[in-house]
Write a structure and sequence with these properties.
Structural class: alpha+beta
Bound molecules: zinc ion
Distance between the termini: 41 Å
Number of helices: 9
Number of strands: 18
Oligomer: single chain
């Protein structure tokens, strides 16, 4: 199944996409697509047949498909070709960072660059959505703790990430820097999570074009690894790294600016589209 949240920012309602691609209102079934309902059986057991009888929704904005996400955990340098373009060694263990959940944004909302930013970059990523509490889980057990998958654009201010000392978190956490969605797709519907095409275009030109088979650490390895250091709860999102073709890796390097557009997608998970603006705030 594909779950969505539709409506104005901060007032989204739960929805489901039926077999014809039509959004239906799920409000009579659940109060929201949230850690509580993702962790319960109600969404997992929901069927196409039930979706067909729900009211049709049209012309509504789609927001992030998960409400009240507890944490967003990033994995860095997790594609072989991207590690190469970044001039980095293949990591021996996954690089883990946290992204502030105040950066979460709808999949079609504007990306707003912080004042003075001239090194903001795009990163298409497979986002893993936890469905069952995970603490110290083995690789073999890890996927049974996954509810489904989302597209994440892990927008990154490279100066803040790499040149201001300390952790990557600073470059990843600006408001609007974490567009998620449009759909939360159950793992049953996604099938093999290590065989998904993913791509990203800026101003209509395709820069990233890869497949999750190029990951250094698989989804199962990432979930298991992160769960050795923190407890993962339903609704938490792990972003599993980006493939080659980011602005940082281009020669010459290229970064986002006012008026640019970003379009990105992953097989079975839909597409995102964002316009880039500049913030007047500090
Ligand atoms: Zn990333």
């Amino acid at each position: 199944m594909k779950f969505v949240r539709f409506g104005k920012p901060g007032a989204e309602c739960p929805g489901v996409v039926d077999s014809h691609g039509v959004v239906r209102d799920l409000s009579v079934v659940v109060s929201d697509i949230s850690p509580e309902t993702i962790g319960a059986d109600v969404l997992r057991n929901f069927s196409e047949k039930e979706a067909a009888s729900l009211p049709v929704v049209s012309g509504e904005r789609l927001g992030c498909p998960i409400a009240n996400i507890g944490k967003v955990v990033g994995i860095g340098l997790n594609y072989r070709e991207h590690a190469k373009e970044s001039g980095a060694e293949i990591p021996k263990e996954p690089i883990v960072f946290l992204t502030a959940n105040t950066s979460i944004n709808g999949p079609f909302d504007d990306v707003v660059l912080p004042k003075g930013s001239n090194r903001s970059d795009w990163e298409v990523e497979l986002g893993v959505v936890i469905g069952k509490r995970a603490k110290g889980v083995s690789e073999a057990q890890a996927l049974s703790h996954v509810f489904g998958y989302v597209i994440v654009n892990d927008v990154s201010e490279r100066e803040h990430q790499l040149e201001r000392g300390g952790q990557w978190t600073k470059g990843k956490s600006h408001d609007t820097f974490c567009p998620i969605g449009p759909w939360l797709v159950t793992s049953e519907e996604v099938g093999d999570e290590q065989a998904l095409d993913l791509w990203c275009e800026v101003n209509g030109e395709r820069y990233q074009n890869s497949n999750t088979s190029d990951m250094i650490f698989s989804v199962a390895q990432c979930v298991s690894y992160v769960s050795q250091f923190m407890t993962l709860y339903p609704g938490d999102v792990i972003t599993t790294g980006t493939p080659q073709g980011v602005g940082l890796g281009l020669k010459p390097q290229r970064y986002l600016d006012e008026g640019y557009t970003i379009r990105l997608g992953i097989s079975k998970l839909g597409e995102q589209f964002q316009r880039v603006k500049r913030s007047d705030e500090a």
